[in-house]
Predict the structure.
Amino acid sequence: MGTLIIIVRRLLIAAWRYRWGAVAVAWLVSGAGWTGVYFIPNQYEASARLYVDADVVLTPLLRGLSIDSSLTSQLDVLQRTLLSRPNLEKLISNTDLDLQITGPADLETMVAKLGLEIKITPQTRNLFTISYRNTSPKLAFDVVQTILTTFIESKTGNNRSEMENAQLFLQQQIAGYEQQLRAAERKRADFRAKYIDLLPMGDTGASRLDQAQTNLRLLQGQLADQVAKRDLLNRELTSTPQLIVTESEAPAAIPGAPASAGGVGGVPFKDPRVEAAQNELNDLRLRYTDNHPDVVSAKRRLEGLKAQADVAAAAASKTADAAAATAKSDAAAAAKTAEAKAAIPARPVKSLPNPIFEQLKVRLYEVESLIASLQRQIADATRERDRLEEMARSAPGVQAEYLNLNRDYDVQRKNYDELLARRESMRISTAAEADADKIKIQVIDPPQVPQNPVAPKRTLLISTVLIIGLAAGAAVSVLLVQFDQSFHTIDELRELGLPVAGGVSLLNVTVSRGRLASVMLFALSLMLLGGIYAGLIYRLTRTPGSF
């Protein structure tokens, strides 16, 4: 800390020797700076404040139906459009700025300058300011007024122009997609007419080839069922007698011989109900499995009828035994009667056709007719299947090509429908723009011709110039000290290594008075510089429009 104080003191002592040079530099810099500040032209600013708000009733109603852009994005578009080159060139031609244009280079410079100097500053979400500065108050007003007019006109004009261009574009695109769709539909129809047998049909997606193969399998299954049914009917027909004996005059049984159980006249006893139930069960087994409810019910009914038939057969057997016992007692009488009747010739046996046998023959005929029909249908289905398979082998990529056609058609159809929806939205948006303003603009503060300048800030500039002048004087004195080779203290002499006898510490009165006069003159020069600064500040404060 002590070394720093010594260095500062040395600099101050050395700078004192060059104080007049510092004063001269301070006066020169301050005077030149104040003169330059005086000749700086005044800048006048014209501004206007606008309030922009979206329609709080129409916008929610149209949301999702029309083109709905946010307020911030619309304002950003308007600002960018407003400061575009065509609008700035129009602004130059409508104001006195065109008087400053002498060639294309000046026009380029002016356009770039206006793009930087025109300020569109948002203050709140809906409020923003348009401002411009110029040395001419009237020119500043004209520029802001022209910008304001362009802003309001571009709000409606640009939107409607853009909507008209968008509608024209949509119409062209829709017309193009209509032609593409018609061509795709014709191509797809021709392709389908050519390969209709191989392409999927209906909701199932099966082709005629698939249907032919499925139909052939069904017919083959039905034929197998009918063949099995025919074989069963043949077996039943073989075991069923063709005739039924209803009356017989055959010789009486030998005495002591047992009667035929369950039969009449030596013919086995058969219940027609049991035969019908058995046939019904056989038919059901051809169509269903043994666990089917109808098959189970038919089995139960057949068992019940068989039980009844057994009961009837047992009763008939008992009756036959009783008749045999009676026949023994009447054997003699019967023998005599037989001898008497022996001379009379016996009557022939009377037989009738069996109705069950006839029914089985009819059903067998129906089944054989159905088998013949199924065989003919299978032959036709086989030929059709072979034809379609041959066609499929000759054109292996038909379905893949058809899928590609459908995919292209679906994409074009989707784009076409979307363009139609966009066109309807555009129509609603156009109607909204024509019949109701979605964005309302209200001029809060219209532009006026400025009376007082807003720049330059002369008070601040004058103060800055004074500070710079004093700093420049001090810097010059310090710089001169760096080139001074003289010694200011005894210690500096001793640092040379030479013996120092001493120093003079007391000056005479004449030297002291001269130094005092020099100090007073230095202070007076600084006070005079400060007085000039104070006078300039006073004059600026008393002059209207200055600051």
User: Anything to note?
Assistant: Strands lie at 44-54, 119-122, 127-134, 243-247, 263-264, 267-268, 350-353, 439-445. The chain has 16 helices and eight strands.
